[in-house]
Request: fold
Amino acid sequence: MLVTTTKGDMDESLLEKLEGTVDNDNELTSWVEYWLEGELVHRSAHVTLKKMPVFGGGETASIG
Amino acid sequence: MCTSFMSELMLGQHQLGTATLVSRGSLTAPTTDTLKAALFLTSATINAATTVYSATGEVSGTGYTAGGVTVTNATAPTSTNSSATAGVAFFTPSASITYTTVTLTTAFDTVLLYNFTQSLKAISVHTFGSQTITAGTFTLTMPSNTTSTALLRLATT
Reply:
């Protein structure tokens, strides 16, 4: 599989791959990094928001 | 949610989702407002007091255009009442917000949703864990469009 990197498209087999996730009350995030000889050449992230935006300290804007 | 958005709704200054009103842009046909999503640095001051989009504190980098990307805005807001006095109106963009093949080396943690059609008026601010992107893609996946999980919810109590 080809990976878009700062050095152009490279085959994944040539790169070191790191992955991670963050799962908390606010978000579910996954990220992937590709490294080449100690240099970060690709990083993507995917965030799913779980909470409402902040509004006066509450989680839902209220009317009435 | 941006405080100004609340009163602007009552003033009819936003039209989300499918067009139903003959709006300010046309006297003959309904038009839906264009929404955009801009990313902001961890150092930026973007919060519920934000009233309009400004490039101050916005991310910059390869593949990113100031002002952000257009948000898919095809689903009309929905409202439901659980009693005579309690109910919820809610809205969620109908597709993920994606910044494709960008390099954003300075950490960012905020996205501002705003109305590009209506003088860049702010709608909502959403924060997440600090991120950087290197020759990659940043995606914000929308929550389910329900009374309890929608991206924007206005509740009567």
The CA atoms of residues 24 and 40 of chain A lie 26 Å apart. Chain A has a mean pLDDT of 85. Chain A is about 0% helix and 55% strand. Chain A touches chain B at residues 4-6, 22, 26-27, 29, 31-33, 40-50, 52-56, 60-64 (CB under 8 Å).
